[in-house]
Predict the structure of Glycoside hydrolase family 5 protein.
Amino acid sequence: MKAIWAAAALAVMSLGLSGCASTLPDPGAAAPVAAAPVGSPVARHGALSIAGNRVVDASGQPVTLRGMSLFWSQWAPQYYTAQTVDWLAQDWKVTVVRAAIAAEGNDSALFHMERELAKASVVIEAAVANGIYVVVDWHAHRNHPEHAEYFLSEIARRYGHLPNLIYEPFNEPLREGVDWSRDVKPYHERMIAAIRAHDPDNLIIVGSPSWSQDVDIAAADPLAGENIGYTLHYYAATHKDGLRAKGDAALAAGLALMVTEFGIVEATGNGPIDRESSDAWWDWAEANGVSWMAWSIGDRDETSAALVPGAPVAGWREEHLTEGGRILRDRIRTANIADGY
C-alpha cells in the first residue's frame, strides 16, 4: 500500500490532461511480433485467459505466475532497463515482471507522459525478449481518468497484439470517500473500453477500494467482460487472516485473483520482515493458483526494497541484496524451477 507515498503525493496530484506536459507523444508504430524463446514461460503457455476463477494458458491449463514489481518509476528509474529485466528472468527465474508506472506527483506520467511511456516500453520489450509476462501498472492512488485512458490506450495500441501483456489500470484506489460501484467500477469500465478498442483479449487486472483489498465488495457487483481479473494487495506484517478471508470470498463468488503487489513487511513498506505471515500468504496463493509479484525492485532504504542503496542495475551478488531480497529471490527461484522454468 505504501501509504506514506500516497500522503506525499496528495499535495501535488494532477486532475486532468491540462496538467500534463505541453504536448503528448505522437503515436508510435505497433511493436513487431517476436517468437518467445524456446522453453520460456510465454513459449510454454502462450496467451493467458480467465476460466472461472482461474488464470489459464492457451491450452486451458491453470497458470501461477511468480515475479517482482519494480519500484515507482519516477523514483527508481535506473531499474527500468533491459539489463534489470534480463537478470530477473535469467537469475531470479521470474515468470512475470511488473512495471509500476508512476501516476502520482509532479515527476510522474501526469506531467511526463512520453518519458513514462518510454519506460514502460523498455520493460515490455525486455519481457518479450525473455519470454516472460509483464504487468503494466498505472501506479496511482487517485482517479486520473484522462491520463490513464491515454496511457493504457497507447500501451494497448503498441503492444496489445503480444501474448505477454497484462494491464493493471488502477494500482490502489484509496479507502476514504471511495465506493466500488459509484467510483471505481465506472472508472474501470472506461479503461476496459479504451484497452479493448486495441486489444480484445489480454488480461486486465483491476483494483478495488481500500488499496485493492475490497475484492469481496467488487465480487458483489462485478465488471462485465472477458478476461477481467482482480488484484489483491497485501503486506504480510499488517494483513493476515482477515484479508485472506476477503480473498476467499471473492474466489468463492467466481472472481479470478492476482496478487500484483505484496510485501513481506508492514504496509508502510518498512518495519520487520514477518516470515510466518509471509509463508501463510504464499501457501494461500499457491493453494488457490493465485499469481504473485513482490514489492519491490528498488534500492530505497526500507525493508521492502530488494536491493541495498546504490545497487547496480543487474548482476546482483549477495551483498547487493537486502535480507528481503534474498528471501524473495530464493522463494521465486525455488517455486519456478520446481515448475520446470
The two ends are 30 Å apart (CA to CA). The first strand starts at residue 49 and ends at 51. Confidence is low (pLDDT under 50) at residues 1-27. The chain is about 35% helix and 15% strand.
